[in-house]
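Sat 14:20. Reprocessing the chain from the morning session after the first attempt stalled halfway. Input below, unchanged.
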Amino acid sequence: MKTRKPLAGTALALSAAVALAGCSGPAADEAVTGGTLAIGLDTDITSLDPIDNLVAHQSTLIVGNAVYEPLFLDGPEGGLVPGLAESIETDDLTDWTLTLKPGLAFSDGSPLDAEAVIAHFERMADPESTCLCQPAAAQIDSAEAADDTTVRLTLAAPDAAFDRNLTRSLGMITTPPEGDGEPLGAGAFAVASTEPGASVTLKPNPEYHGSAPLLDELVFRFLPDTDSRYQSLSSGTVDMVWLHTANLVAQAQTEGLTTAIANSTTATAFLNTTRPPFDDVRVRQAVQAAINREVILEAADQGVGNLSDGPIGSGSPYSVRTDYPEFDPDRARRLLADYGEPVAFDYTTDARPQSAQRAAVIQQMLADVGIEMTIDTVDAATMDTRMFGRDFDAIEFFTSAYGETDTAMKSIFPAEAPGNFAGYDNSEVTGLIGRAAETADAGERAELYGSAAQIIVDEAPILFYTESPSGFAASYTVGGIPDLSEHNVISFLPSELWINR
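Finished this time. Tokens:
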């Protein structure tokens, strides 16, 4: 019997817009059309092409959703919400049938049909592709356009979570790029202009398949400093901001701002296992044992959030926890004594205040057990270059991936995974994750993931620090903000947003 993959309800619940503390004016309670909405983000969008991953990060996913609208969106409790697709079905986890909504078109009027989807999948699957979705695309053994709206896919091996890949870059169908230009999408908005290092401006896409956006213009501004970005709401520089620090999320909610928040972000660090000192498990375990995560939670997150215990986020549909090693500086010293050599390394991080606070606390903890850690603060572009080039000793990684267990486990931990920035290679872990992909039984999959997660935690190629809420906060003039409290990922269509000045 063919199994229809479960989809969450297609309507996103709207939260009431409430007055911003300290501002005058009534809360807008009915949608209005027109106007410009400005959103402050923490990441400079240097490329709009999904193959370059920038529009698929947690904080910038709203940009990708606006321009491309993925085939599916992340829904409540780990479900899927239809985007450009109507459904995806499988009866054996190997053969999949993807059905598109009828009448789709790119912003230039050219059809977004089954052939366009196949061309996009092939582009992402190219061995030279830089997309983190490349392995997911490469597992498509054959693709056939049964008709304009139906794509039949056969995978090289069963994959119970293949559909989860269609919420980000792999599901953001584009036209083939021409020259140095950006590809086109079929989302509710099209790119009007870009100003590198400053902003991206979008206009409504006249070819959009759904209801026309309520806004005349949507502007994304690059505001890297967390506190300044938050203050830009009251100054009127922007109408809505991305928040990824737990204290500001709490402040926004206390002040009565409209928010779209999920407990979705994990602070971690990759340790480069391909070169000294972290090619030795004793050094990795020593660093892990020397770090008091409770202190990090207080110093960097003002005590708001949870401790992370591994690669299965607390919001994951798989309720599996690991036995994460306790803070034990004496154990760290024993491991270092057994290693027998001085340990010094560079810790790469960005300039966000939260990152600086976390790094400073870790530096002191490691010094207490005799490890010399040098903090190397770089910009976001350099962070990405070093991470993808594996040009680091240790590098901070702030991500929402661990709430999406199926895709995170497959894209980060197998030896050849594109997100395996640590260079971690454990055949047992790779095998457990492979077996999990082959079963439709969620309980069995959870058990396999749990076994893999415990090995990962024990061998420490990644340090897991804290989990914190993140998302968007908006002024009282903004409406259409969805309730994401039951979501693991901050993902929604900005076509539903409106502003009433």
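The chain has three domains: 45-171, 190-262+470-499, 264-469.
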